[in-house]
Design goal:
This protein has about 350 residues and is an alpha+beta fold. It contains twelve helices and ten strands. Strand 7 and strand 8 form a beta hairpin. The longest helix is centred in the first third of the chain and has 40 residues. It binds 3,4-dihydroxyphenylalanine (DAH).
């Protein structure tokens, strides 16, 4: 074995003995570095004659190439071993049982609203949604509640110091009643020229806002508006529809309703609807559930309809209240605290 072969053997052995990439680089320096053995050999060429320099030079270059390829082979082997070790350390045991996330469910208020929609839907009512940021005109004025009228304080709301594109003041709607006007106007426009106009039958559930907060009031709460307008719709229809709705909602055919005279600017006459269960722990106790009434002629006019011809009723109820009664919840705030221990009971 000549000196060059011995050097290759030694380099290969040193590389193989280097356990890490850093130590491999040290071994490389011993052979290929500035003061390394191969470099020294190349420097020694200067002392040789021309012919000898040529053969010896070619041999040393060949040696250098072999050492480099031994080095690369070892580098790759180390990298592969490192990757292997890493994979092993991070190995996933795919046979381990997963960590289950609890199944979600509908919020009790959403459930109540779905029930309301299904029952009124079966009676031919459409379901409409409207904006929560509403104009002052829709929230009050169109509902026969003029600016600066004290009746506005019945629905004290959050006023927004901003106007819409048409210059109307904005607020967070304090009730769903503006949806009467939005829906009826669109309906009247869609059926302009139809004689008679097809009846308006709609409910509009959604979020509403008021400056109010205690066990039975939350600054954000839900309402569901109802509206039925036609040529011959009377209070009698309201009584039948609403009583039937309650009996189906609570699955209690013994439910009785009572209409108590009241005041709302947008209805005349107006009534609070009370109900009493026919069975269960609250049997016979009167509970206030909704405001209602025959829609005021000024409001019918704001729908774009002739109040001499079209007449009907409206009501506004609280799905939160209905959900509390149906599910036996005593504090309204529980609905909005998002405590999973409470919510999981409704899955
Ligand atoms: N908007 C009323 C409120 O929030 C409730 C109401 C009463 C709605 C009478 C109606 C109605 O549609 O006819 O207090």
């Amino acid at each position: 074995m000549n000196d060059l072969d011995a050097l290759l053997t030694q380099a290969t052995a040193d590389f193989a003995a280097a356990p890490t990439a850093a130590e491999l680089e040290n071994a490389k320096a011993r052979f290929l570095g500035k003061a390394g053995r191969v470099t020294e050999l190349l420097k020694g060429l200067g002392k040789l004659g021309v012919d000898e320099k040529k053969t010896r030079g070619a041999e040393i270059n060949q040696l250098k190439a072999r050492i480099e390829s031994a080095l690369n082979a070892r580098r790759e082997a180390l990298a592969a071993a490192e990757l292997e070790a890493q994979l092993e350390a991070q190995a996933l045991d795919v046979t381990l049982p997963g960590r289950a996330r609890g199944m979600g469910g509908l919020h009790p208020v959403s459930r109540a609203i779905e029930r309301i929609e299904a029952i009124f839907g079966s009676m031919g009512f459409d379901v409409a949604e409207g904006p929560e940021i509403e104009t002052d005109w829709m929230s009050f004025t169109a509902l026969n509640n003029p600016e600066n009228h004290p009746a506005r304080s019945m629905q004290d709301t959050f006023y927004v110091d901003m106007k819409d594109a048409e210059g109307l003041w904005l607020n967070l709607r304090p009730h769903t009643s503006p949806m009467q006007v939005r829906y009826a106007k669109a309906h009247a426009a869609r059926h302009a020229g139809a004689d008679p106009m097809p009846e308006i039958r709609v409910i509009a559930p959604g979020r509403t806002y008021r400056v109010d907060s205690d066990a039975t009031h939350s600054p954000m709460f839900h309402q569901c508006e109802g509206l039925w307008i036609g040529e011959h719709i009377s209070f009698k229809d309201l009584k039948v529809v609403f009583t039937d709705f309650l009996r189906r909602f609570f699955e209690d055919d013994g439910i009785e309703t009572r209409f108590r005279p009241s005041y709302f600017p947008f209805t005349e006459p107006s009534a609070e609807i009370d109900m009493a269960f026919g069975s269960g722990p609250l049997k016979g106790k009167w509970l206030e559930l909704a405001g209602s009434g025959q829609v005021h002629p000024n409001v019918v006019r704001n729908y774009g309809l002739d109040p001499e011809r079209y007449i009907g009723f409206a009501f506004g109820m609280g799905p939160d209240r209905l959900a509390m009664l149906r599910y036996g919840v005593s504090d309204l705030r529980m609905f909005f605290e998002n405590d999973l221990r409470f919510l999981y009971q409704f899955r």
